[in-house]
Amino acid sequence: MIYVTVGTQLPFARLIKAVNDIAAEKGLDVFAQVGPDKSHYHAIKTADFVGPEDANRLIHEADLVIAHAGMGTIISASQLGKPLIIMPRQFHYGEHRNDHQLATANRFRDFPNITVVEDKRSLSEAMDSRLEQADGPPLGVVPEYAPDSFIAELKKLLV
């Protein structure tokens, strides 16, 4: 199962339409949290809102997570070692107030569990690649808290 999330504040039709088209073409099982998007998507299951507990469960159960460049999803997928494809919202498409999601995506571009895409073609290619790797070794899990040794070194600096 593929879990897609775009957050709850704004719709992200460019991403959801692309996922819907790809799912229809490839017969993929997709559940998408679409925010305040009133469009109809025929090839995927959708919900406007998914609560935190259900979102964590869906990320845990997913073979692949696809999202806007929101920190909550980046952190959650990384903590569970899930492959994540992010497509940042872009200001010039009217998808957000500025391009902070491009900056976020660029910051995480080199993380082993994260693939950054810009358009439907690169999304489709990334989905193929990540789904082929689903049966491979698990990705590294990012711990929720910094290691004790790191905290000890920080304390030395602050004393």
Named at the architecture level, the CATH assignment is 3-Layer(aba) Sandwich
β-strand amount: 5-15%
Average pLDDT over all residues:
89
Please tell me the total number of domains. 1
The N- and C-terminal alpha carbons lie at a distance of: 49 Å
Q: Given the C-alpha coordinates, what overall shape results?
A: globular
Going by CATH, what is the homologous superfamily?
A: Glycogen Phosphorylase B
Number of helices: 6
Would you give an account of this structure?
This is Glycosyl transferase family 28 C-terminal domain-containing protein. Keywords: Endoplasmic reticulum, Glycosyltransferase, Transferase. It is found in: Endoplasmic reticulum. Its main location: endoplasmic reticulum. Belongs to the glycosyltransferase 28 family. About 40% of the residues lie in helices and about 15% in strands. The chain has helices at about 15-25, 50-60, 70-80, 100-110, 120-130, 150-159, and strands spanning about 1-5, 30-35, 45, 65, 85, 115. It has a single domain (about 1-159), classed as Glycogen Phosphorylase B (Rossmann fold, 3-Layer(aba) Sandwich). The longest helix is centred in the first third of the chain and has 14 residues, at about 15-25. The chain has a six-stranded parallel β-sheet, with helices on both faces. Strand 4 (about 65), helix 3 and strand 5 (about 85) form a beta-alpha-beta unit. The chain starts with a strand and ends with a helix. The chain has six helices and six strands. The protein has about 160 residues and is α/β, with parallel strands linked by helices.
